[in-house]
Amino acid sequence: MRYRQGPVPPMPEHVPMKKLVTLMTATLLLTMPAHAIVGGGTPQTEGVARAVVTIVGSRGNFCTGSLIAPEVVLTVAHCVQPGADYKIVDRGPDGQPQLLNVRTVAIHPGFNMQAMLAHRATADVALLQLEIPLKGKSAVPVGAPNIPIQVGSRFTIAGIGVTMRGDGKSGGAIRVAGLVATGQPGTFQIRLVDPLTNGVRDGIGACTGDSGGPVFEDKPDRAVLVGVISWSTGPNGAAGCGGLTGVTPLTLYRDWILQTARSWGAAL
């Protein structure tokens, strides 16, 4: 697997991929019931969710990605840092989990990990090139949110993360949730909340494993991917989930995404 960014920092010892796949299959793909999006969400198998995939790393982490071409997955940079191997896990046409190799990882050169960890705006965007096209999925169009973004604007998020923080067995199924923009949304960052709780008490929102998941905005003819899930908080900004969902909008990064994917020969 080739990287298109920077030196490889020291990382913990790798988990054998065979052992990792066994673990991820048991905890993410075969656990019933399995959920994503803390606080519930709606299980989905069609529509926008048909583009969602699971990304697993040899360090034991898992994230969400979106298929934007048969061989290209969009996710966030902090999920696919150098120093580990990554694969795509998805259910095949027969319902059995299949593992796909990643050929190349491209991380946006403007990404800053410290900024992301502090919930500040940064280019938290990355692309994965698969060795072979992923069949049985539908690629989604990459766009940008309508500008200016208004407080109260509605977005749909999707992910495979956990519904209970710290409980990996509660993740694995694709779920979606409708959230609204709060604070001062712009081209650098959007903060979303559950419209029923407004982020002051436990509500629906992204959680562990949902990072990299798609954020959709309804356009006149179809839903368009306009951002990626970057981070989350608990109510009132506390550590956890169910409060704010931090989104990196693609307004400033769409050109880089399209150019990189096309340099790999992808048709978007």
Question: Mind telling me which CATH architecture of the largest domain this is?
Answer: Beta Barrel
Structural class: mainly beta
β-strand number: 14
**Quaternary structure of the protein:** single chain
- Distance between the terminal alpha carbons, to the nearest Å? 23 Å
Helix content: 10-25%
What is the string of SSEs from the N terminus onward? EHEEEEEEHEEEEEEEH
Give the strand line-up of the largest sheet.
3-4-5-8-7-6
Topology of helices and strands:
Layout: E1 2-3, H1 17-29, E2 42-43, E3 52-57, E4 62-69, E5 72-75, E6 86-91, E7 97-107, H2 113-117, E8 126-130, E9 154-159, E10 175-182, E11 190-193, E12 214-218, E13 223-232, E14 245-249, H3 254-263
Parallel strand pairs: 1-7
Antiparallel strand pairs: 2-10, 3-4, 3-6, 4-5, 5-8, 6-7, 7-8, 9-10, 9-12, 10-11, 11-14, 12-13, 13-14
General description of the model:
This protein has two domains: 2-33 and 50-138 and 254-263, Thrombin, subunit H (Beta Barrel); 154-249, Thrombin, subunit H. It has three helices and 14 strands. The chain has helices spanning 17-29, 113-117, 254-263, and strands spanning 2-3, 42-43, 52-57, 62-69, 72-75, 86-91, 97-107, 126-130, 154-159, 175-182, 190-193, 214-218, 223-232, 245-249. The strands form two sheets. A six-stranded antiparallel barrel has the order 3-4-5-8-7-6. It has a six-stranded antiparallel barrel with strand order 9-10-11-14-13-12. It is mainly β.
